[in-house]
Queue: 2 jobs
Job 1
Amino acid sequence: MKTRNMRVRLLAAATLLAAGAALAADDFKDIEGRVSEFTLKNGMKFLVLERHTAPVAAFFTYADVGSVQEVKGITGLAHIFEHMAFKGTRTIGTKDYAKEKVALEQVDQAFASLDAERLKGGKADPQKVKALETAFKAAQEAAGKFVEKNEFGEAIERAGGRGLNATTAWDSTRYFFSLPSNEAELWFYLESERFRDPVLREFYKEKDVVMEERRLRTESQPIGKLLEEFLHEAYIAHPYGEPVVGYMSDLQSITRADAEAFFKKNYGPSDLTCVVVGDVIPKQAREMAERYFGRISGGPKPAPLRTVEPPQSAERRVTLELESQRILLTGYHKPDINSPDNAVYDAISSLMSQGRSSRLYRSLVRDKKIAVQAAGIPGLPGSKYPGLFIFFSVPAQGHTNAESEKAIEEEIERLKKEPVTKEELDGVKRRARAGLIHGLGDNTSLALQLANWQVLTGDWRNLFRQLDKINAVTPEDIMRVSKAVFIKSNRTVGTIEPLETAKAK
């Protein structure tokens, strides 16, 4: 055990040392020339980047599915399935699957009876609910006896794996971790198994975990509450306006059968893109991909999302009165990542937000001292569909949201009327290059970027082309886009006002 732990620590240290050295050798064109790509017969896409700077590799799976695939009644399901993807298969995570399968069906039946009674609302029989809750708990305990806890994660940890994690967003779910390169086959086996043969064991217990996440991150956090209400106000049709974590009533009633149906519809191999970056041989990676992932049956991608957010024609506002400091959010609808002006939005964000020389910092924080934080972000809730360019501010003690809103509006008007200086635009371009170089230094970060650009734009090379596009942005581009997008009728404003202030009015 000590020997293995020492090996892992040395490996991690070597990785950190190699990352800095890699930047000197990894010219953009050089990296592009070392990316291999292939698509399996079932439609699954792979990108493999050789990088022999350390005996490790990052493995990244991008599922082209998120909360936008949900409908009312099953909100939060994409996030729940992300949790379930770590629970194992018919051979991983179980002591006896044949018996466990029967026990899981009994859990489903017990939950269905309980949920049916609870959904009667005021007509539900309290004694019957209590008895059904007891039966449901007993069924879960019986099924739990067959579970081999965290076998999936422990297999990775024993092999020296690090950073095992996943994230769910509005339009993506991403799974990733790193392994010593001589353990690469373990990733191909485990990752293919969890998408070929997942068993959604401990489903209802994991739902409880997700519901607790909602309580902690949304219902108990002022900024979480504001963001949920703000997006509801900004989107009247598109599912970008729905919370990724889901609504509590949906979370309470979602079933294991719902999750299995969601998986079958949205997790086909054509919805998955895998990226491997590190000490790997592309030919060997392809052989293992075909051997393991090739076992997954193919099928057509789900139909494209039909709902399109209609143009906003009037300003919208929402104010929450909470025991909290003041917070201001101002959002403007903008196109998706494939817009010809995507680089212009990135340039505006950098100009307004990045560093102490940024316009919002200089104006609101340094000079006027009316805020402790202020920035502009171009990609919320996501980039696959038309999203929002959001400006936010945290007012300083003794100052108001109205002051911050006025100051931000003044900076937006400057964008429309005054050409950005050459020095400012040069700074934007320097920061863009530095940010890209920084991202290239870490295998996992690079795998993430390659996957993002491949799925969202159809070509991973756009990661590097984006720098050229930012370099081509002109002061006239910034003025043109600002005049078209940053207008009152396209604006949604969300604020938090302290509860004691509201009471005093």
Note: Residues 1-26 have pLDDT under 50 and may be disordered.
Job 2
Amino acid sequence: MNPATDMPRFLRSARVRLRAALLLAAAGLALSGCALTRGDPTITYDLGPAVSASSGNGNGNGNPAPAPLPKLRVAQTDGPNWLEGNALFYRLQYAQAQRLQAYATQRWVMSPTRLFDERLREAVAARGTLGWSGDGSVPALKVDLLEFDQVFDSATTSAGVVRLRATVYRHAMLGQQTFEVRRPAPSADGAGGVKALAEASDAVIAALLDWIGTLQLK
């Protein structure tokens, strides 16, 4: 008896298909392995160490420490859908101002809204007491992140731009204001954009907290 000829036709056909599928899978794994080893590695960033509250407006120039804030709750920072991923965005203002693009191999470790939210909470805690989210007896701060990207004014010059809307409320709105800060990037690439955005984030948070200090919260 010859197993190759006496095997039922449908079993022989299934055996051929299985062998072909295994060969295709092996080829796919080999190609993906080549892509992983030959492609550029992905670089991830966060906003770096938090700026000390003693640095005043966040520029580290030794200004006196800002006045402490009253106890404050911080609601979760929100932003547009395009900021919910971990892409690092830039805009060629001089050429394609309406087009928002992402770096191919450079990413944030988490979404910019979450990174900014953590930075904001650290700053509030450094200048006062960060209240429990469900404590309705203290005022709350709600931030909507409107812009968080690297804007190129030319092929060689760019800035990190952070723009947000801040609302302070307790039973009713106590104040609302929009803030925008630009900081120059030291290099015309993703690493330069990250540094500029980190500095812009610290500066806009400092300005925001200074503004809250002017409100009648007690």
Note: Residues 1-7, 22-37, 54-60 have pLDDT under 50 and may be disordered.
